[in-house]
């Protein structure tokens, strides 16, 4: 068990490092000159500066160093929580993100919870509804939900619930009201994907011979479903859960832009447009961290649900012949 | 007193809005305390009958006519509520495959406790009964086993846990659906003996569903033979065995063959070996933090020789190392020590690339005909895949070869475009054999090639293998736990136990005059004594 946990944690750290390095490499290879962007943001033409002024500025941002030195500088900085200075806004990236990350975390936590509950509920109803037309309808529903693009869902919600009915604000971050439509937008996709996986998994589980054993005992329908089918069916869905929670984080880019919410997603979108390398690097690193953490939690939850991973103590060696009792 | 009374029962499966009949006009009774066996091949309707009795037919199963009264309650057309009262407390079910019959995420004790609690018990009494039922089912150390999960138990112990679940409802009838076909012969014998003793002691009726007439004849008071959904013959085992009326029953009796070695090579000079394993050992690393890294000896100095043009069989219980031996002989697994010589070439320790040309000489046929073929490949694609892989011939010559191969395994050419799902188990195994023949190998390794098939189909496949050997001069390395199959096809045999060869020699010698206690135990466990007595 300890081996399993330590292994997973090491894996998580390696993935994080790889994500950071890859992002750094891609951003470095982009055909743009950070110096030029920098000056453009300040409204200065590069040609108007004297070579020594330019050199001084380069030195200030560490751009005169070799790529390895820059990489090392960034990596050690990130480990200390220092992401450098935004090229376009001239303030520390950590401050920029600190102001906004709360909004985004709230949004994705809410969306993840709603997706989990809605997805499971839909899968359960779709599998166990007794009236056939309803079951068919519920089984088809997730495919529909998964095929709507998020921006479309968002625009539809704004049009209908903000402009026509006036129930929820179309933009802003004020109060719980403003959270409803963004959360719904994200959840439509993630809960549909979760429901699809769960429905398939339920179907498969219910065909297993141990379900027949359980029914032959005389257990009621609901006892068979809840005690024998649910936990086994949830296992394959666990893997997708990590990806889905990560998806709620990345979805914030689209959703925060459409609903004009001051979160990290919107920051990322603006930073990419402005080619603000330190900010993009920081956002990608943070998103990767969230992704890795969620998947680590899922991996650590696995043994709790599946005794085949955790419970191997006192295991009988398969080659041991059966003891004859007299 | 009649416990089960089935009259004129028709059961069918709805497919594409049409009912395909599975059971037709069945009459069957089981008296209290009686042991009845239903014998028939797959598709004969025997399992459908059992499922219909406790309302566990698949969703598309329908009882279309007749009645099935169990303990005074009509089950045909009964509500789920009525059927639930019957399940467990009146009729207990021991399902087919013990490896997948238990919920993998619940402790064994818990799964038995569920059945006990349904009788209205609660508290400490439940745990006491769980242990009692496990002990009754013949599980040693029930306290430990009750705390374990199914994956920590061997197949035999899982089967006993399933018996404990069936007993926990205190039923009047136990239905055992192919109760032991997934188990080794020795374990099978112990479990069936035990189950027989239990039902006798407690006065429970037993309905055995099996494809093996030998198993049925050894234990039942009455045997019912089913074919294509109809009862074709019924009577006490001795009468049926001595004076079978139906051709079908005679075939089943012939298939329940006594162990009479077919080949006798005792006084012959053995041909040159095609495959020779010398002192092959295999140690698997076992990672266990508490006990430190320690190897598990799967094979201990195993020496096996396959003579050219003949069949050498590896027999033994599961876990004895026969499959590992086969995998090493194929070069799929690397031996820890010893040498493997295939047709004059040493293959142990060769890299994948060096080994690949040698693979043409030895091919494999798997145990499970349902998993061995790619479900998306047509028969033609499956059979010609080895040719494509070794870049032999062009499209036209490959198709020609595929036709030849189907001729060799006696399948019509029209099957070339079929998918595995459109084939029966025996037909799939024929395709697998055709695929193994595609590269014209000298040696074919057969890993339990018939153990997943019905007895009559087994017979046909064994005949096919024998014919192919005679026609093409093939050598076989034949892995099996079924000694009667081995007796029929093999020239020489190695009996394995715990990674060692305990006895070796011509089949005619080893089977008629076994030297080791282990071989004797394996031979004694073969069902069909009554068949032999009646002959």
UniProtKB/TrEMBL annotation, chain A:
ABC transmembrane type-1 domain location: 101-302
Key words, A-Z: Cell membrane, Membrane, Transmembrane, Transmembrane helix, Transport
Membrane-spanning ranges: 12-30, 105-129, 141-167, 179-199, 235-259, 279-305
One Pfam short name: BPD_transp_1_N
PROSITE patterns per record: ABC_TM1
Chief location category: membrane
InterPro entries documented for this protein: BPD_transp_1_N, MetI-like, MetI-like_sf
Membrane topology field: Multi-pass membrane protein
Family: Belongs to the binding-protein-dependent transport system permease family.
Name of the protein this chain belongs to: Peptide ABC transporter permease
Source species: Paractinoplanes durhamensis
Lineage: Bacteria, Bacillati, Actinomycetota, Actinomycetes, Micromonosporales
TrEMBL record, chain B:
Domain ABC transporter per the UniProt entry, residue ranges: 6-253, 275-523
Secreted keyword on record: no
Protein keywords: ATP-binding, Nucleotide-binding, Transport
Gene Ontology MF, one: ATP binding
Gene3D superfamilies named in the record: P-loop containing nucleotide triphosphate hydrolases
SUPFAM superfamilies for the chain: P-loop containing nucleoside triphosphate hydrolases (SSF52540)
The keyword Nucleotide-binding is annotated on this UniProt entry: yes
Superkingdom per UniProt: Bacteria
PANTHER family named in the record: D,D-DIPEPTIDE TRANSPORT ATP-BINDING PROTEIN DDPF-RELATED, TRANSPORT ATP-BINDING PROTEIN
Family: Belongs to the ABC transporter superfamily.
Descriptive protein name: ABC transporter ATP-binding protein
Source organism of this protein record: Paractinoplanes durhamensis
């Amino acid at each position: 068990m300890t081996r399993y946990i330590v292994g997973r944690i090491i894996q998580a750290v390696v993935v994080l490092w790889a994500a950071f390095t890859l992002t750094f490499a891609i951003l470095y290879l982009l055909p743009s000159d950070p110096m030029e962007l920098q000056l453009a943001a300040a409204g200065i033409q590069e040609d108007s500066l004297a070579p020594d002024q330019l050199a001084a500025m380069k030195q200030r941002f560490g751009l005169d160093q070799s790529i390895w030195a820059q990489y090392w500088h960034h990596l050690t900085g990130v480990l200390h929580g220092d992401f450098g200075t935004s090229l376009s806004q001239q303030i520390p990236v950590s401050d920029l993100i600190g102001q906004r990350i709360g909004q985004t975390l709230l949004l994705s936590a809410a969306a993840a919870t709603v997706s989990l509950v809605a997805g499971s509920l839909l899968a359960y109803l779709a599998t166990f509804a007794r009236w056939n037309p309803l079951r068919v309808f519920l089984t088809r529903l997730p495919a529909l939900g998964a095929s709507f693009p998020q921006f479309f869902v968002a625009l539809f919600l704004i049009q209908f619930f903000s402009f026509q009915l006036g129930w929820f604000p179309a933009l802003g971050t004020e109060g719980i009201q403003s959270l409803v439509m963004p959360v719904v937008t994200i959840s439509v996709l993630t809960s549909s994907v979760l429901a699809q996986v769960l429905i398939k998994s339920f179907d498969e589980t219910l065909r297993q011979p141990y379900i027949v054993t359980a029914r032959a005992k005389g257990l009621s329908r609901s006892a068979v479903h809840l005690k024998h089918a649910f936990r086994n069916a949830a296992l394959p869905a666990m893997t997708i859960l990590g990806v889905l929670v990560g998806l709620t984080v990345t979805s914030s880019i689209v959703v925060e832009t459409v609903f004009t919410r001051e979160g990290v997603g919107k920051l990322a979108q603006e930073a990419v447009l402005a080619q603000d390398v330190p900010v993009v690097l920081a956002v990608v690193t943070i998103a990767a961290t969230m992704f890795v953490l969620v998947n680590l939690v899922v991996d650590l939850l696995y043994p709790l649900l599946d005794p085949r991973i955790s419970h191997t103590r006192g295991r009988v060696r398969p080659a041991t012949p059966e003891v004859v009792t007299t | 007193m009649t416990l089960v009374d089935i009259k004129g029962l028709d059961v069918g499966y709805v497919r594409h809005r049409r009912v395909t009949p599975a059971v037709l006009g069945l009459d069957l009774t089981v008296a209290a305390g009686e042991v009845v066996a239903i014998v028939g091949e797959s598709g004969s309707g025997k399992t459908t009958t059992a499922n219909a009795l406790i309302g566990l037919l698949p969703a598309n199963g329908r009882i279309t006519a007749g009645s099935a009264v169990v303990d005074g309650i009509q089950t045909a057309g009964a509500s789920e509520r009525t059927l639930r009262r019957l399940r467990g407390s009146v009729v207990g079910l021991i399902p087919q495959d013990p490896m997948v019959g238990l919920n993998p995420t619940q402790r064994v004790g818990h799964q038995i406790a569920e059945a006990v609690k349904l009788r209205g018990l609660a508290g400490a009494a439940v745990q006491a009964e769980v242990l009692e039922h496990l002990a009754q089912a013949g599980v040693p150390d029930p306290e430990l086993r009750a705390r374990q999960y199914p994956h920590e138990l061997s197949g035999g112990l899982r089967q006993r846990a399933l018996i404990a679940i069936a007993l926990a409802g205190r039923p009047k009838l136990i239905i055992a659906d192919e109760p032991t076909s997934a188990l080794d012969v020795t374990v099978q014998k112990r479990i069936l003996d035990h189950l027989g003793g239990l039902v006798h002691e407690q006065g429970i009726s037993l309905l055995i569903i099996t494809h093996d007439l030998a198993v049925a004849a050894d234990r039942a008071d009455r045997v019912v033979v089913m074919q294509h959904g109809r009862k074709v013959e019924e009577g006490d085992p001795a009468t049926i065995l001595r004076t079978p009326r139906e051709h079908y029953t005679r075939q089943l009796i012939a298939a329940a063959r006594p162990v009479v070695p077919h080949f006798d090579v005792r006084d012959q000079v053995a041909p040159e070996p095609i495959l020779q394993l010398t002192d092959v050992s295999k140690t698997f690393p076992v990672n266990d933090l508490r006990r430190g890294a320690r190897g598990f000896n799967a094979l201990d100095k195993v020496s096996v020789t396959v003579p050219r043009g003949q069949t050498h069989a590896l027999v033994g219980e599961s876990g004895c190392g026969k499959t590992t031996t086969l995998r090493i002989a194929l070069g799929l697994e690397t031996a820890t020590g010893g040498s493997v010589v295939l047709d004059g070439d040493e293959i142990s320790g060769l890299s994948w690339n060096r080994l690949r040309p040698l693979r043409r000489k030895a091919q494999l046929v798997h145990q499970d005909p349902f998993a061995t073929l790619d479900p998306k490949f047509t028969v033609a694609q499956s059979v010609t895949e080895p040719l494509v892989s070794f870049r032999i011939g062009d499209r036209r010559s490959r198709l020609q070869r595929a036709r030849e191969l189907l001729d060799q395994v006696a399948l019509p050419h029209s099957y070339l475009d079929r998918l595995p799902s459109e084939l029966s188990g025996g037909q799939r195994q024929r395709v697998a054999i055709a695929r193994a023949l595609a590269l014209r190998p000298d040696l074919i390794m057969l890993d339990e090639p018939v153990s997943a098939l019905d007895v009559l189909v087994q017979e046909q496949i064994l005949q096919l293998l024998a014919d192919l050997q005679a026609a093409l001069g093939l050598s076989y390395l034949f892995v099996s736990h079924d000694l009667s199959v081995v007796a029929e096809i093999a020239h020489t045999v190695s009996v394995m136990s715990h990674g060692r060869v305990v006895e070796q020699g011509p089949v005619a010698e080893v089977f008629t005059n076994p030297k080791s206690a282990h071989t004797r135990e394996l031979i004694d466990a073969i069902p069909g004594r009554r068949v032999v007595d009646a002959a």
